[in-house]
Amino acid sequence: LSPLVCWQIAVRACFLGFAFGCGLLLSAGRSAWRHFGWYMCSLSLFHYSEYLVTAINNPRSLSLDSFLLNHSFEYNLAALSSWVEFTLEKLLFPELKQITWLSTVGLLMVIAGDCLRKAAMLTAGSNFNHIVQNEKSDTHTLVTSGVYGWFRHPSYVGWFYWSIGTQVLLCNPVCVVGYALASWRFFRERIEEEEITLIHFFGEEYLEYKRKVPSGLPFIKGVKVEL
């Protein structure tokens, strides 16, 4: 890696560590921002661990993009929208942001979703990549064990419920609905695109796997195969 890239990686890692530390301070306090502190810790840990697990699992695909901080304009807009909603509702309806049991449910969703995603990444090993691959490499194999025996797309299932959980944690009713709809649409299209590639790579082996194991996401069956 060039010195510039190393510097860019260090800056991002330090930023996420700083955000996690700020989140811990807010979480330990008794202010109304305590639940936002939980959110900050969850968000920074998610992005840092995306890079870390990729570095362990598939270092050849590692890049600055592995942090997923610049995932897409829509992703950044969604994050900004959740912060704006939280702040406005905290000012206008402060009692809405103090429902501890609901925020706890959201935190559990976040933890479970992120653990499922990281388990999927670790199980897939070098087969996992943040970018849908169009060409099959020599080491590319169909993974059907572990969490892939529960769902065909466990990393997407984990991310789906993690994203919704962040908004439940923040008690953001508007963004809960918005995140659910936007995430569902994104993963529906992503799964169809990915399954076309997987059928091309593995043929009948993947079709048999597809028949036996659900996608894991509600009302998403994946690409339709004409018989």
Automatic annotation (TrEMBL):
It holds the Pfam family ICMT. InterPro entries: ICMT_MeTrfase, PPMT_MeTrfase. The chain crosses the membrane at residues 6-26, 159-182. Its main location: endoplasmic reticulum. It is an enzyme of class 2 (transferase). Its EC number is 2.1.1.100. It is found in: Endoplasmic reticulum membrane. It catalyses: [protein]-C-terminal S-[(2E,6E)-farnesyl]-L-cysteine + S-adenosyl-L-methionine = [protein]-C-terminal S-[(2E,6E)-farnesyl]-L-cysteine methyl ester + S-adenosyl-L-homocysteine. GO terms for molecular function: protein C-terminal S-isoprenylcysteine carboxyl O-methyltransferase activity. Keywords: Endoplasmic reticulum, Membrane, Methyltransferase, S-adenosyl-L-methionine, Transferase, Transmembrane, Transmembrane helix. It is a multi-pass membrane protein. GO terms for cellular component: endoplasmic reticulum membrane. It comes from the Eukaryota. One of its GO terms (biological process) is methylation. Belongs to the class VI-like SAM-binding methyltransferase superfamily. Isoprenylcysteine carboxyl methyltransferase family. Catalyzes the post-translational methylation of isoprenylated C-terminal cysteine residues. This is Protein-S-isoprenylcysteine O-methyltransferase.
